[in-house]
Design brief:
- It is a single chain.
- The chain is an alpha+beta fold and 249 residues long.
- It folds into two domains: 2-119, PAS domain (Beta-Lactamase); 139-244, Beta-Lactamase, CATH 3.30.450.20.
- The chain has helices spanning 2-15, 34-40, 44-47, 61-73, 115-137, 159-164, 168-171, 179-182, 188-201; strands spanning 19-23, 29-32, 79-87, 93-103, 106-113, 141-145, 153-156, 205-212, 218-229, 235-244.
- The chain has a five-stranded antiparallel sheet, with helices on both faces. It has a five-stranded antiparallel sheet with strand order 7-6-10-9-8.
């Protein structure tokens, strides 16, 4: 009866449609299913009793070993999830989503190919960095803010320092000053009214007004602003660009 149950469990382990590994308490492979070979390219029999870390990118091996130590001290059933790089026999790097679970005889590991997902995330992050670099290189202040009387900034490009005398971190979330406080007192109500009118009309706003810079100087600026809207038409915020105007106010 016990032998029959073990055979059934072994067959179930083999038939599951994902890569599975059973490790001892030191992280050495005790059992693998066919999904392992499909994922990594390594034959099952050649991998038995070897440390699973040996199939990982050298830079990721310490992360894996630290996870084994943490889970080895944790209660049975505890688990961790991480993305690690595995190396195939031909040297290809493959990102793998690893779920590691502590059980009485060591660890059960499930593995799934996450290469496309990670590469998409990396490409998106690279595009975001490129866009930020482009915006920061502009001789102007690019921004995104909430539609309130403070014009609470959520994003500000590096160009704000030359324009206002304040760093981005001093303006974001009104950490030091609100953007509204930088607008000349005589212009604040007009700027608010013109932006609200443009938001209601769903049209861009073109504004000319004065800023009071950090050193107390008055500077004429030109702003182009557009609303950010939800799918049902609610105003989520305002985004735009502000640059020095050489026209008299």
């Amino acid at each position: 009866m016990l032998a029959s149950l073990r055979r059934e469990r072994g067959q179930e382990f083999e038939s599951l449609p994902l890569a599975l590994a059973r490790l001892d308490h030191q992280g050495a492979i005790q059992q693998l299913n066919k999904g392992w070979e499909e994922l990594t390219g390594y034959p099952v029999q050649a991998c038995l009793y070897r440390a699973q870390a040996s199939y990982m990118h050298p830079e990721d091996q310490p992360l894996w070993k630290q996870a084994l130590i943490r889970l080895g001290k944790a209660p049975l059933g505890a688990w961790e999830q991480m993305q690690l790089r595995f190396l195939t026999p031909d040297g290809e790097r493959r990102w793998v989503e690893v779920r590691l679970r502590h059980y009485s005889q060591g660890f059960i590991v499930s593995l799934g190919d996450a290469t496309l997902q990670v590469e998409k995330q990396q490409a998106l992050a690279a595009r975001h960095r490129s866009l930020c670099n482009l915006l920061d290189s502009l001789p102007a202040m690019v921004y995104r803010c909430r539609n309130n009387r403070h014009w609470t900034m959520e994003y500000v490009s590096e160009g704000c320092t030359d324009l206002t005398g304040y760093r981005p971190d001093q303006l974001i979330n009104s950490q030091v000053v609100t953007f509204n406080s930088l607008i000349h007192p005589d212009d604040r109500d007009r700027v608010w009214a013109e932006v609200q009118q443009s938001l209601q009309a769903r049209s861009p706003a073109c504004l000319d007004y004065r800023l009071i810079t950090a050193d107390g100087c008055t500077r004429s600026v030109h702003e182009r602003a557009s609303g950010i809207y939800s799918d049902n038409g609610d105003v989520l915020g305002v985004e735009g660009i502000i640059f020095v105007s050489h026209m008299p106010h």
